Amino acid sequence: MDKERILVGMSGGIDSSAACKLLREAGYEVVGATLRMWDRHGKEASFIDDARRLAMRLGMEHYTVDIRDEFNEKVIRPFIDEYMNGRTPNPCVFCNPNIKWKHLIEEADRHGCCKIATGHYVRKVEDASGIWIEEGRDKSKDQSYFLWGLSREQLERTLFPLGDYTKREIKEMMAGEAAYEKKEKKESMEICFIEDDYRTFLRQAVPDIDARLSGGYYVDNKGLRLGRHEGYPFYTVGQRKGLGIALGEPAYVIKINPAKNTVKLGRREELTSCAMKIARCEIRDMELLRSPEARVCIRYRGEKYAIRSITEGENELTVEFADGATAVAPGQSAVFYIGERVVGGGIITYAQPTKK
User: Is 256 in contact with 86 (CB distance < 8 Å)?
Assistant: First the structure.
């Protein structure tokens, strides 16, 4: 009897390699696919060669899918635009459903694979209420925050072999694998096309950014000038380090005004918001969000905040926090949880400051 074929999205790193190993041991015929989404310095990314070599050593089929133009148009360009509009983007949350899963499923269909799999540290749970993503067992590596945009149909086709493992267990598992080359790679939750710092990337992508925007002003809550900054795209709400200004007490970025090229600074307590608006929402069950157990996370690895109320508007939700939330940054994802289960998400468009 022929083995069931499954396609694994391979990055050449330890996580996707471990996914291949676990699925092969589970009896699947594993096919590898690597998405060529970007190149650094005009050269083919090394992870493609790493994945290709691993597949060859394991005797696996391997395919490379060149989607650089689409990735640039749908992920990189909007990423740049968001910073230029004074927001802090989450490119992965759009790339996952609209680029990665789209192309991996298309590639799976092309090569006769029933499902796809990735090396994400999350779990898929099926019960009478449907199919859900839940946090991975390793809370320090959990990536559920980035996957709220996956559709029910995409989840039905997906396996997450690493969800019940810790990173340490994966490293120990792969330590004895002769086929896997031990290389230190950046964690997959980092932005894949950013090599060092996003500010360097912005300067390369927008060559006149310094000439246009450096020399804007830090201001206080009364609009008084406190000193000059490097340009509003290089800051994010909640930032404290790297401001290059001494005010005699810790200062935080409270608000960014791209129209005036100003960055408002203030004390930590001024970062508190009583409510926020979110758009581009994907909510699996609105009634669940009205449960007293519902919580919302506004940044990766951040605190989950209790919710006082949720109001539905035209193409948006207004979320009132039960006790306030700190450093709500427009552009970031707001992800809703019931316990460990993801029940939806959206993009923060506005943060309502708490009145003092």
Answer: yes
Question: Could you give the 3-state DSSP secondary structure of residue 304?
Answer: strand
What pLDDT score was predicted for residue 189? 45
Helices 167-175 and 14-25, axial angle in degrees (round to 10): 70
Residue 192: active-site member: yes
**What is the enclosing helix (H) or strand (E) of 269?**
none
Q: Tell me how far apart the alpha carbons of residues 313 and 318 are, in angstroms, rounded to a whole number.
A: 7
Residue type, 9: G
Res. 58 pLDDT band, cuts 50 70 90: confident
Tokens (6 digits) for 173: 């598992």
Question: Rounded to an integer, what distance in angstroms lies between the CA atom of residue 87 and that of residue 345?
Answer: 17
Nearest to residue 133, comparing CAs of 294, 284, 331? 284
CB 311 within 8 A of CB 272: no
CA 331 – CA 53 distance, rounded (Å): 38
95 is catalytic: yes
Which one of 92, 113, 192, 297 is the catalytic residue? Answer: 192
Q: At 249, give phi and psi (nearest 5°).
A: -155, 160
> What is the DSSP-derived secondary structure letter of residue 220?
-
Burial (Cβ within 10 Å: 0-12, 13-18, ≥19) of residue 83? buried
20, 92, 95, 281: the active-site residue: 95
CB-facing half-sphere around the CA of 317: CA atoms within 13 A = 24
Instruction: Measure CA 181 to chain center.
Output: 27
Q: What is the pLDDT of residues 8-34, one digit of tens each?
A: 999 888 999 999 999 999 999 999 999
> pTM score, two decimals?
0.92
Structural contact between residues 65 and 34, judged by C-beta atoms closer than 8 angstroms: yes
Q: pLDDT for 294-348, tens place per residue?
A: 999 999 999 999 999 999 988 899 999 999 999 999 999 999 999 999 999 999 9
